[in-house]
Amino acid sequence: MDMLAEVTGSLNTVGYGLAAIGPGVGVGIVIGKTIEGTARQPEMAGALRGNMFLGIALIEALALIGIATPFFLP
């Protein structure tokens, strides 16, 4: 038997898995910095929370683009 295995299937799933790492790290950083800012200035918690949700929405839009892109590329 030949010890080399043939790779079959779509590499799109691997590509999306790698593309999901970036938004995952970005969301973690945004949430961590929001918690840090709230700890430093508790009176700004409301404004920081609103900015956090806006940032998370923009980061997750990148993840959705990462999902959709392989379907449109030839």
From TrEMBL:
PROSITE patterns in UniProt: ATPASE_C
Boundaries of every V-ATPase proteolipid subunit C-like domain copy: 16-69
GO CC term, one of those recorded: proton-transporting two-sector ATPase complex, proton-transporting domain
Pfam families per record: ATP-synt_C (PF00137)
Membrane topology: Multi-pass membrane protein
Domain of life: Bacteria
Bilayer-spanning residue ranges: 13-31, 52-73
Intracellular or extracellular location(s): Cell membrane
InterPro entries recorded: ATP_synth_csu_bac/chlpt (IPR005953), ATP_synth_F0_csu (IPR000454), ATP_synth_F0_csu_DDCD_BS (IPR020537), ATP_synth_F0_csu_sf (IPR038662), ATPase_proteolipid_c-like_dom (IPR002379), F/V-ATP_Csub_sf (IPR035921)
CDD domains on file: ATP-synt_Fo_c_ATPE
Main location: membrane
Keyword Repressor in annotation: no
Site (Reversibly protonated during proton transport): 60
Molecular functions (GO terms): hydrolase activity; lipid binding; proton-transporting ATP synthase activity, rotational mechanism
The entry's keywords: ATP synthesis, Cell membrane, CF(0), Hydrogen ion transport, Hydrolase, Ion transport, Lipid-binding, Membrane, Transmembrane, Transmembrane helix, Transport
Family: Belongs to the ATPase C chain family.
Cited function: F(1)F(0) ATP synthase produces ATP from ADP in the presence of a proton or sodium gradient. F-type ATPases consist of two structural domains, F(1) containing the extramembraneous catalytic core and F(0) containing the membrane proton channel, linked together by a central stalk and a peripheral stalk. During catalysis, ATP synthesis in the catalytic domain of F(1) is coupled via a rotary mechanism of the central stalk subunits to proton translocation.
UniProt cross-references to HAMAP family, sorted A to Z: ATP_synth_c_bact (MF_01396)
Name of the protein described by the UniProt record: ATP synthase subunit c
